[in-house]
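User: Teach me something about this protein's shape.
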Amino acid sequence: MPVVKEIEGKSPAGAQPPTFTESIRPPQDAYPVQSTDGPQVDANSCRILVVDDDPTILNLVAKMVERLGHYATAAEDAMAALFYLAAAHYHLVITDYKMPFMDGYQLAARIKAQHGGTRIIIMTGHCEEEVTNWLHGSGIADGFLFKPFDLNALKEKIEALNDRHDDAIRHVNAWGG
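Assistant: First, the predicted structure itself:
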């Protein structure tokens, strides 16, 4: 049997490099860290996952979510978001539409398939009217935010989704569900 040895950083024969998704996935011991320096949260608070490939927007939207009294977790891309969703339950995902490798629509479709009760807001600053109309009709997203948006617009969108969710639960419970 031949002996195979590594030569200055080269992989031994037959060794496979990690696949793309393995190489960008957060380490197994990484868990979403919740901020403890934000405002006090209460029973009406949501766990919200914010996804954007632009670190400035990601941090800004996560801080806005915390300012509104919710728990925020920031994910820099769709793969990190899927990892966090596998590790913890989130009531809402706010994701950018235009991201590399997997866009917000593709992420939303995976979330709806794997985490059916999770609501999704897609935020975008690049959508033309045709794409926006297509997304509205798809049923994948529960809401949309158009960049730039302010704290009040985010608050109204989150509250509207919570109100619709509460109405649906009351309707199911009224019918013995």
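Now, about its shape. The longest strand covers residues 119-124. Residues 151-174 form the longest helix (24 residues). If you'd like, I can walk through any region in more detail.
User: That's plenty for now, thanks!
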